[in-house]
Structure to design on (463 residues):
DNA sequence: GCATGATCATGC
DNA sequence: GCATGATCATGC
């Protein structure tokens, strides 16, 4: 018996908040036993069935139909400083390619279902039964109006791509807060027909980006420690023809062709050129932020900001590095769930400076995400890397001066990406799941995937 | 001059 | 102690 009026939003929210600091076992243990629970189902299903006492609804209506509330549960991780972060993106309803192209945002299946969310965040512990996860945060969520404008633009971008017969080329990096993420990852059956192209498209769902969920969490937990600044102070600007991309690019335009030093002067800044965050500070200042503020819109959209210094021939001075990978994790994770794919599917913001002698001149900025066909090409690098580790064939040879030649994917083998060391020194290692056949090594220098400088020049800077 | 492997510097 | 951006060394 629920002590909750399932037709009243207030009643539902109030009842849900009683879950705080409890586990599912504590909150609905008896109910679960009565129904002969066998460990099947996910956190959300158990919550619906055994706490709220209803069977999951049809796909097109919100879970609590009369109250217009959609229930979502999602895992948290905890940082060293004790703050909560979302463990992943928040997956919403599946995109029905055959229907959505007929919809408008305001009457869309997405908006009907997800306008008002009830969120239950629990602390995920990999060694625990999900019945024992502790629920940390519970609250409902209405999108602030400035967020909603961006979400609507995102929704429309996704819809346009479907109308253009490009559902199979959708990518999370296409959009800002609302993404189109893959769902039903591994199975071949997760392919769907699309209305304007014979090619089948991977099944995808609307999702809130991990960064956006982090902001929801910070809001609910009311423990915002960082100082944020907004690029778009008056959301009305997005009612004009302007997208957030256009707003940002317009802010940079006046500084094209100027040196970093000139820009500093014109903005009346006094920042230390030696500091590591020099270019980040410059970028923030151009966007109108105070020193030390973090860019709210970029964080919500999981945008990777990369400042590139081009040589006089327009080739980036360096390849672009990504975080190091653990060999063990690499081989036990599918491509669909891999960190590398996740990275390549995110949105990037490139700021290009070019050397003129010792001066760095701002050339241009660009929002970018990797085209679908290139992601498939970069996947080959990942695949080869996995195979190399699985085979235990790491070191090809050792030169006279002790330098190791490896079997890792090289820059010359792939247009887009390669693998190179990224470590403190040779002793800075991760474990190898399979010992190297030649040397017997069971640990190896930390490596990461890199974007080739030539790719950045040809496919991002010159485009 | 570039590809590849190795390492450094800084900031949290 | 570690992540990240940056740079160095060697050999072809």
């Amino acid at each position: 018996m629920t002590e909750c009026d399932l037709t009243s939003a207030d009643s539902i929210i109030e009842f849900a908040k009683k879950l705080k600091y409890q586990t599912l076992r504590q909150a609905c243990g008896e109910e679960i036993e009565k129904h002969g629970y066998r460990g099947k189902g996910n956190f959300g299903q158990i919550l619906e069935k055994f706490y709220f006492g209803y069977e999951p609804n049809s796909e097109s209506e919100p879970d609590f139909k009369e109250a217009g509330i959609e229930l979502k549960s999602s895992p948290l991780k905890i940082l060293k400083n004790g703050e909560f972060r979302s463990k992943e993106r928040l997956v919403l309803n599946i995109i029905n390619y055959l229907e959505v192209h007929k919809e408008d945002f305001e009457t869309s299946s997405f908006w009907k279902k997800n306008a008002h969310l009830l969120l239950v965040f629990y602390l995920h512990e990999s060694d625990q039964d999900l019945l024992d996860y502790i629920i940390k945060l519970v609250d409902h969520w209405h999108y602030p109006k400035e967020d909603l404008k961006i979400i609507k633009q995102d929704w429309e971008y996704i819809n346009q791509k479907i109308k253009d017969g490009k559902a199979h080329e959708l990518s999370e990096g296409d959009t800002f807060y609302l993404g189109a993420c893959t769902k039903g990852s591994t199975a071949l059956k997760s392919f769907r027909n699309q209305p304007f192209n014979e090619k089948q498209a991977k099944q995808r769902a609307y999702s809130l980006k991990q960064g956006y969920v982090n902001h929801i969490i910070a809001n609910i937990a009311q423990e915002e420690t960082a100082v944020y600044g907004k690029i778009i102070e008056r959301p009305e600007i997005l009612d004009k023809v302007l997208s957030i991309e256009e707003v940002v690019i317009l802010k940079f335009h006046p500084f094209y062709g100027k040196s970093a030093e000139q820009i500093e002067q014109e903005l009346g800044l006094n920042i230390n050129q030696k500091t590591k965050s020099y270019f980040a500070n410059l970028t923030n200042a151009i966007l109108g932020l105070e020193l030390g503020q973090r860019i709210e819109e970029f964080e919500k959209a999981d945008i990777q900001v990369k400042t590139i210094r081009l040589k006089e021939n327009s080739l980036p001075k360096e390849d672009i590095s990504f975080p190091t990978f653990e060999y063990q994790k690499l081989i036990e994770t599918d491509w669909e769930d891999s960190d590398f794919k996740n990275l390549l599917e995110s949105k990037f913001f490139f700021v290009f400076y070019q050397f003129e002698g010792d001066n760095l001149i701002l050339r241009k900025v660009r929002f970018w995400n990797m085209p679908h066909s290139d992601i498939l090409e970069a996947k080959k690098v990942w695949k080869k890397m996995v195979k190399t580790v699985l085979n235990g064939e790491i070191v090809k040879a050792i030169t006279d001066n002790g330098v190791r030649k490896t079997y890792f994917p090289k820059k010359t083998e792939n247009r887009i990406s390669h693998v190179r060391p990224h470590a403190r020194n040779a002793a800075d290692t991760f474990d190898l799941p399979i010992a190297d056949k030649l040397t017997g090594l069971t640990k190896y220098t930390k490596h990461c995937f890199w974007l080739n400088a030539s790719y950045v020049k040809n496919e991002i800077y010159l485009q």
